Amino acid sequence: MSAATSTPTPTREATRPPEPTRPPAGPAQYRPGRTITDWTPEDPDFWRSTGRRVATRNLWIAVPALLVAFVVWQVWSITATSLTDVGFGFSPAQLFWLTAVPGLTGGTGRVLYTFLGPRIGQRRFTALSTLVLVVPLLWLGFAVQDPGTSYGTLVAIAALCGIGGANFSSSLANIGFFYPKREKGNAAGVNGGLGNLGVSVVQLLTPILITLSVLAVGAGQRTADGSEIHLQNAAFVWVPVVVVLAAVAWCGQNDLTVASTPFKQQRIIFRRKHNWLMTWLYVGTFGSFIGFAAALPLLIKTTFPGYSVAAYAWMGPALGALARWAGGWIADRLGGARVTILSFAGMAASLTGVIAFLPSGTDGGSFAGFFLCFLSAFLFSGIGNGSTFRQIPVIFRGLHLKGLTEGTPRYAAALRQAETEAGAVTGFTAGIAAYGFFFIPAMFANFSVTAAMWGFVGFYATCVAVAWWFYARPGAEAPS
User: Fold this and answer.
1) Given CB 3.0 to 4.6 Å as the disulfide criterion, which of 106, 268, 377, 450 pairs with 350?
2) Contact residues for 325 (Cβ-Cβ < 8 A; gap 6+)
3) What's the structural domain count of the chain?
4) pLDDT tens figures, 128-153
5) Which of 56-70, 80-94, 314-328 has the highest mean pLDDT?
């Protein structure tokens, strides 16, 4: 047989049957309820094809869970205004202290949740931290039905309600890992801003809910004018909502392994100067928002008793919560530090106006002026909430990535550390700022409204100085 017609002997490789094609494993990782092991939101192709959809799902499950957590945290701010009406013999100072107590546990819980939440994961931590809110709600619903319930018992319930405020730190820290740098400000604004609406929701709905006997579980309470209300509705109505939201989070969210960072890698933030500086600024923005939200119902009732708490108190927190999203959006375009300075200047001017319209001596003051200036203060505090949270990731990226070339191993490691520290700082600042919930009502319990307001104005002046010197001036150490 000639060479032209000969057939070569098949080799082992040629006779081996082809291996079956394996389906790509990647998409399965992004199903609801699964843990995600690889997450690269800065990759445009990944973000466009998969990342945005998964991040959006996790965000919109987190928002209502956070909103209801704020409802539980703030339920005492409005419930306390009705206690004396149904026979509880507490002084105005005691009511302010009762309103303030959830701020202590909320702030402390936020610091703990900052480091614990990312370690456990968005899905598991959101579900569990939401479900535990059933406990203070049930206890509150039974306690307010008996005017003989001791003040100490109510303080203990208020302290447990404070754990609802802790959810904010874990939620913001976890959600931040899902989004690329260019969208972090907007995502934090949506999550935090709509979550903050829980303050307005509870202050708007509670006066309505307590009048509805059809929702009541247990006996009603008689007020001084002979009408019947059901204070327990302020708590019981939220129990099934909490259970449903916890189940949705468990089944629908994801845990990111990239967010699971041991505490020893996060604790370095305590040696970072900008952690403490941004905490100072966020105390001024969010601390003011949550503290004024807690105190405003009682301020209206004690300073302008002729006006309805139910009609007005919810408006300020609603405006501040919605402005938070606007603050993040504007800061993404104009720079966080500039917007933060504007917010503090606006809050200082607003509180100066509040002081001018307070009753003094024989002058009954002006409720319209007082309330409009308070609305302005809430607006600027909300803007500042969004802008400060936008500053944090920008600051830590700038510090860690300075002088590094994108795409190199050192750059990737530095980026991961920057993300880890920014998430920890975000949660820690939110935790410390939550103490504003305690200190602002406590200030009104111990000092005159005028003296307290001037103290806040002086504090805002220091915040303007910090923001300008470190972050906004030409040649600033960490422009943001």
Assistant:
1) 377
2) 186, 189, 190, 193, 194, 386
3) 1
4) 999 999 999 999 999 999 999 999 99
5) 56-70
User: Per the domain annotation, does 44 fall within a domain?
Assistant: no
The answer to whether residue 48 is domain-embedded is: no
pLDDT digits (tens, 9 = 90+) for 235-278: 999 999 999 999 999 999 988 876 666 667 678 888 999 999 99
- pLDDT of residue 431 exceeding 50, the answer is yes
Q: What would the mean pLDDT of 451-464 be, rounded to a whole number?
A: 96
Domain of residue 307, residue span:
53-253+261-472
List the structure tokens of 290: 């949550």
Contacts of 248-252 with CB under 8 Å at 24 or more apart are: 248/61, 248/65, 249/61, 249/62, 249/65, 249/123, 249/126, 249/127, 249/130, 250/33, 250/123, 250/124, 250/127, 251/32, 251/33, 252/32, 252/33, 252/57, 252/61, 252/123
Structure tokens at 343: 């917010």
Rounded to whole angstroms, the Cα distance separating 52 from 473 reads: 35
Alpha carbons 218 and 214: distance in angstroms, whole number: 11
Neighbours of 90 (CB within 10 A): 15
Per-residue confidence band for 299, with pLDDT thresholds at 50, 70 and 90: very high
CATH number for 273: 1.20.1250.20
Distance (Å, whole) CA 48 – CA 191: 21
CA gap 112, 144 in Å, rounded: 30
Q: Does 230 map to a domain?
A: yes
Instruction: Over range 358-387, report the average pLDDT.
Output: 93
Could you identify the residue written with the tokens 């409204």?
449
Per DSSP, helices labelled H in 335-448 are 336-356, 367-401, 409-433, 436-446
